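Issue: copy button drops trailing tokens. Both records pasted manually instead:
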Amino acid sequence: MANYRIFKTNEFDSDFQKLEKPEKERVLKFLAQLSEKGGSVGKPLSGLPFFREKKFEGNRLYYLVYENFCVVLAVAISDKKAQQATINAILAKLAHYQLFVMEALKEKGVI
């Protein structure tokens, strides 16, 4: 199985910076796990197998898996209170995220 490339949105980076050190370490371990296993990790959301979440310490990490490119896009982190609003915002921007991944792959010379 090929390793997955991990890309992160600016929103994810901003959310990540707000976390405490132990939570940041947990997220980094989880991103390493995603790099190895891709879409076989976490829980699918909204009936979309490529849109997934992983719970940790009261928070949720949201990510999109692009199997055809072996890419995982870390999109956002939220708490339970903001869960539905975060999911809705991600669903509204799926096309934007796909373009983001395509541009990142072009920059790296992959496609």
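Record 2 (pasted manually too):
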Amino acid sequence: MHFFLMILYIFIIAIISFLSNRRINGISDFLMGSRSINPWLSAFSYGTAYFSAVMFIGYAGKMGWSFGMSTLWIVFGNSIIGSFLAWHVLGKRTREMTHRLNASTMPEFLGIRYKSKGLQTISALIIFIFLVPYSASVYKGLGYLFEEIFGMNFMYALLIMTILTSFYLFFGGFVAATRIDFFQGIIMIVGVILMLFFVMSNDAVGGIFQASKKLSSIDPKLSAPIGPPGMVPLASLVLLTSLGSWGMPGMVHKLYTIKDEKSIMAAKWVSTGFAALITFGGYFTGVCGRLVLENNKPETFDMIVPQILSKTLPDWVSAIIFVLILSASMSTLASLVLASSSAIAVDLIKGIVKPDIKKETMVKLMRVLCVFFVVLSFIMATVNTPVISLAVVSWGAVSGCLLAPYLYGLFSKNVTASGVWAGLMTGLIVTVAGVIRYGFNSPHIPLIGALSIVLPLLIVPIVSLFTPKTEKEYLDYIFKCDRRTK
């Protein structure tokens, strides 16, 4: 059953990719779908890029086991901060400014907004380098799932995912990715509903209230508002996985491509509902790990959710859940690969090295870079590092460097290029120094990631107070004399 659904899934993706290839006439089509994506497709694309095997396999297993019921605070954060407020705060302004300034990537927008080719270059390099660990974490999560369900060698599983991702991005680009995201989003909704039903119905769980009581009998703190590791680690994870999404290029890119500003309202609500369902299904399953596995922790946290699924689900539901996690991961990978490849092709090659490059050559270059990035991710996925550690470091570095410059760039006339450079370097230094000091596997890594995001939000406006301001005429051009900006 699992094998049949996987083959059917791959066949459908291949058909969508080939059909989408007919719409690729230039880099705008390949990278942005000509900015004409409807709100439902945009919302599903945002949600499926947000949640992947990293959430289901990495975060849900480890957080559920460690924090118990308080893990569900992450559901609240991801739904309200990471989805609703992201669309509400960033959506309209992002769509309007990037369209008017003709910016197709986050580094390109930053370069135009702060009148700095250097900022465009360094932010592009940060994206390409630090999204590789996140992409690798998705591959690792899928590899563990393949290993548990099929008994397949971990390396073979990684190889299959590498080939599949390369295939549909090479042929269809953003158009294929968005259409496939909608198809995969439907699979995720159906799969999560089935997963919740069977996990809650399992005798070891008995529903959410019984689960809380049973966890309390193991350790009262597992059913408390704040789990055993404490407030700081939990708040760090909520902040990292929620506010962090505002600075992730692959997700912000969805705001660039929506059809029009009126569509943002619909996309906001659809995206929020999708996030609430998917995150609750994933994290509650992780919370049930101690109950289903009788408090016997597997060799690695990454195997908790795969083992829960193998013990609680009928074979046919297990097959659907397998495709669910595969779907979520493929969407995230597509988003990461497009963001990273465009950072090199658009922001470095076209933006700096060869501005007059032909559009046909750009499309070919993007396709080659997509494959190259996937191969790099495959190589890093073979390193013996937990899924969650790779993801946290990636989110901390990328969002830490880019969130503050991007957010202030949209809304404030008072921030300066010097302030932005200071914020970017703060996020980068905190991440790199934290990893060097504590290592990838340290329990302090989520706190390091959260600090990488928060500190630049403070540093940028402070440094901007004491550094030369951008000339008024240029700011008027950027903001069109918008009185709402400060």
